[in-house]
Model the fold of this input.
Amino acid sequence: MAHISWSEVRDRAIRFSREWTGTSSESAEKQTFWNEFFEVFGLRRRSVATFEEPVQRIQGTYGKIDLFWPGIVLVEHKSFGEDLGVATSQAFSYIRDLTREGRTDEIPQFVIVSDFARFVLYDLEPEAKYVRIILVRRYSYQSLRLFC
Done:
């Protein structure tokens, strides 16, 4: 992965923001959205994270994590305007499921829930003195820089 400057990240973030303004459908757009989000930082999503990672639920059925980078980030994405509390509950339930499956080395440091217009970022590191929650409206360069 080639290193890119903050100036390039800023330029990419501005393009990303303009392109994704007004998008609302999770099922139609979330995978392209996250692929392009990773590109803002010069990362190929396929090289680090997967979509629809299966995890066995306590009931024995399987759920699918929207985007999963083992040990780094778990993402749950909803359509614009949906309750991010539901996405948050789903994400933390998946973490419990990963633990129960013995996949503790895959527990992420971060959980992100989003609906295209809002991001909530949870830092799960034990030394964190608080849960860091960042609400981002209409992706600004300063907001996107928080993800690095």
